[in-house]
Amino acid sequence: MVTTTTTTTTTMMLMRKMFVLMMMLMMMVMSVGKAFPDKTSIKELLKDFQTIDVRASSGDSNILCKDDKLDIAFIIDTSRSIHAHEYDQQIEFVMKLVSIFNISPQNIRVAAISFGQEVVRDSAFGFSTHKTKEKVLAGIKGIVYRGRDMGDQTETGTAIAFARKNVFSNTRPGVKRICVVLTDGRSTDPLQTKQEASYARKDGIKMIAVGIGNNVSMEELKAIASNGQLVFKIDSYELLPQFERHVMTQTCESK
């Protein structure tokens, strides 16, 4: 049944793409001997084409995660080096990832914490806190920007340790455990970060590292992640949407 639904959906997406391309060609043909077609119209068509492609990608990821049983925790950087609008883009990115999950106490459960010079405990929530997708999304949206109050330190290792000891202590037997770490720079204590990530991996937690911006250390991201495929280096917050599908896929396929 799933295979049939997937094939039908993919066919419809391809037909819509072909229609958009045909419309673009018609506009160009009709413009022969006249002014070149309006740039705004072409941009709108291209935008529609890209939107269809994103929908197809999201659909594939949704099917991929549909029947999984996962406990996924997000560790979100809210240090002073991140501007408020960049933090909002980071939160939106996490919410987009969460929106594809089949969230329930029996299937996928989500937890989230934020950190800067310390873990922000008052907005953190564990796997048992929110039992529906709507409440999880509201919980993530409620993790507000604390950059100005976070000092100059980025205690990534402390955040990983907190998640391992306080969040992943409430996981279900036999269920895959995944931790997604998002950060914009080098941690204050790289050795601690490396050690805490190692402890988490030894506890059976799959670690995914997402580094954003020019100050990220690839060496540190590799030290956090369980393997090279789970390392993502993104040049800016504006580019986060382009990596949604890749991070979704690796999260869903983590074994």
From TrEMBL:
Keyword Signal attributed: yes
| Record's keyword annotation contains Signal | yes
Keywords per UniProt = Signal
Its signal peptide is 1-35
PROSITE patterns linked to this entry: VWFA
Task: Cite the VWFA domain residue spans from the record.
Answer: 71-247
Q: What is this protein called?
A: Matrilin-4
Q: Which Pfam families match?
A: VWA
